[in-house]
Amino acid sequence: MAPKAAPSSSAQSQSSVQTLWSAYSEQTPDRLKFIDSFLLFIMLSGVIQFAYCVLVTNYPFNAFLAGFASTIGQFVLTASLRAQVNPENKSEFKDVSPERAFADFALGSIVLHFFVFNFLG
Amino acid sequence: MVSLRAVLWPLLALAGLASAKSSSGDNVLVILEPALDKSNFSIFFDGLKERGYKLTFRAPKSVTPQVIQDEVATFNHVVIFAPETKAYAQDITPQSLVQLLSLNTNLLIALSPKQTPLTSLALEFSLIPPPPGTPLVSHFPERDTPATIVPVRVPSSNPILSTTKAPVWFSGASHALGNNPRLVPILRAPAESFAADSTDDSGSIAVADAAEKGGEGLWAGSQMGLVTGFQVVGGARATWVGGVSVFSDEFAKKEISKGKKSGNQQFAQDVAAWTFQESLVLRIDRTEHHRVNETEPLEQYTTNDMITFTARISKYDGVKERWESYSGLKDLQLEFTMLDPFIRTALSPVAGKPGIYSATFRAPDRHGVFKFVIDYKRKGFTQLHSSTTVSVVPPRHDGYPRFLSAAWPYYAGAISTSIGFLLFSTLWLAGDVREMLMKKGKGLKRE
How many Cα atoms sit within 13 Å of B425 on the Cβ side? Predict the structure, then answer.
């Protein structure tokens, strides 16, 4: 039973991933896709730094903290921007216009980067 | 300046000639008991005069010259050859003798088997005298002198004594040594000697009985001292001699064996030289500290700095009568302490620089107020102590190493995030404009 079931379930999951992907690429606005690509880039950068820290060296530790925190912080800020400009969440963020959301995002990022470079050493 | 120096130089040289043999001065007061004849000690006293000391004699009961006048010591050294005197003039008391030591006056004191005020003072110096009336007795080696006149082998490794190996005649009382670290044993009793009130064979039974009880109550053996020095905190020295006859002409001339001179004459001069702060006198001229490859001392160092500490040490040379740089200390240590020593390292002499001792070490990874401490205490030598306080602070915020190659992935990560943010913002705003234009364009098309 098991050998038969395995390919079918993998095929099923494969198809569900395809469905998800096609749904995402068809239904998501370009602006959100743009944000997602930026999120992906930040995430990869964070993963690489973390792997370097674990596998190679954590010295100087403050530089690791600064680099890793910059990716985390930027990810959080960008993710909240995505939540606020998503048309589907309009009911939740009635008072926040997309322009206001972007201004918050930009200000937060500038403050974040100021701290990051101060701490980078 | 040069001419002034040319004028002053001969004067200084003259002053040097006239200056003391000892590092602390050349005026000696000899308090001599009337029962002792000055001429019986002529070899010892003439030896002192030859070496440049000025001797003043005084009886224990005479009033002048006073040893302390207006709180100032009148003499640099006091020799008390009054082993049987029980009453002194008013200015000589145990208290005044101790005060003399704190005024950097050296004392050479002779004791005897008799109980005198000086015997009780010896107790304060951690010397424990035997019961009164018990001189040192030894029946070995076999000889024609009385049993109370004992030849004593001179220790060969004592830095105080010169290297002549001739034994020394001794007659007088021994003393046990307390555990005071400031005691400097100079001459110890022979192993087969003991203190007894009688040299008759009748007394020997009591001695043998005591010996069978493990030596209980017996004043015997090489743990007893005959001549013992004591060095006080200020550097003054007090030497206690068990019998005044060690210094006498009789013992100096007396032969140890046929044709072999006794070592008394040399021994007496060596003891006087040490007591009068002529030999084994050291001082720290200066200490310096700085970071490696710098020259200026810092008030505060940073943790993990490499620090070089340098000390210059001089030894008094009694022959040349001046202080000379001395590199002979092999076991000098430097401590870097904050309550406890965090670092204790050898402060070793620098080759080619006489008198300079140097150590380089890494400051501990700990901030606080630290001290450079030199604390050199060796039997017979002047005690050296020096303490310099510095603080050790953590690095300032910009004092850490920068642009480390190992950290480039982190730098690249942070920079790429920033650039990414700028690009993202630019494109986002540009997208806004394009959308607005597109909306406008659509509006135009509709019209």
Answer: 17
